[in-house]
């Protein structure tokens, strides 16, 4: 790309200071405050405190910890004290960040750990791995309380209790009702023809979104009587160029959602009216991951090489890693009134 278009920040977002030295694999905000955690291919887990002064956001590095190999996923405990991270060293570490404690290993698999989720209603940690298992962990015990076999490697996972959706390599989705967590509730073949990249459970637990490597999102309802509401749509495409949808995030208040893609763009959508609410300008590198803070007032996204085109297309001279903070406007995240309604949601 020429210098004139190679702008990592065309949307004039706020830049997080001291970003990772390699690509970001996950971003997660504390459920209790504006503390942002990023995991990276550089084996590190970092935390920043995000502060607001008027209309300006700023970041202060707070702490970091490390794994022996690249870190792929992260989540917070619901009380906002503790971070869990998993990765290529086949372990999940529990980091009592707010107490200034050291990270300790609390979960193990036989292959890299791709997804991790804390479920406060059950007081358990769930881990999904490329060893084709899900494991449920009670942190007071060293062994998992249950191991669930999957048909293939875990590629994506989303929990909105009691709904948990796990996407695997073979385009399968295994749906669990966590009130009966040891039994599959339903198995669904992806509505998309290509490899699953991300999944997001609906806020009302009635279904899920799926994003694929082929620039397409599927909206899928679980109830058979709601199947007429299912649809797919194209996004993150430009001409004949098709890009992966890397992240799907529901807004915690308005329940609209955002897609982030390898084209370097993020877009806001309303699934109920089947509308795009706002298209943002393309950054000069892919967006591999993104997240909202707990009240939806900050949208964090990383801009960096996503390794989808392999090592031969990685240029260390230009492949700087960024994390940006966007302040969503109401028009971007609030659903527009539909025809024939009073406008009340």
UniProtKB/TrEMBL annotation:
Where is the region Disordered? 1-22
* Protein name, entry field: Uncharacterized protein
Where does each WD repeat begin and end? 17-58, 64-105, 106-147, 245-279
Task: Determine the domain of life of the protein's source.
Answer: Eukaryota
Q: Which SUPFAM superfamilies match?
A: WD40 repeat-like
Polar residues compositional bias: what residue ranges?
A: 1-12
Which key words tag this protein in UniProt? Answer: Repeat, WD repeat
InterPro entries per the UniProt record, alphabetical: WD40/YVTN_repeat-like_dom_sf (IPR015943), WD40_PAC1 (IPR020472), WD40_repeat_dom_sf (IPR036322), WD40_rpt (IPR001680)
Keyword Transmembrane helix appears in the UniProt entry: no
* Protein's UniProt keywords contain Repeat: yes
Instruction: List, alphabetically, the Pfam families matched.
Output: WD40
Looking up PROSITE patterns in the UniProt record yields: WD_REPEATS_2, WD_REPEATS_REGION
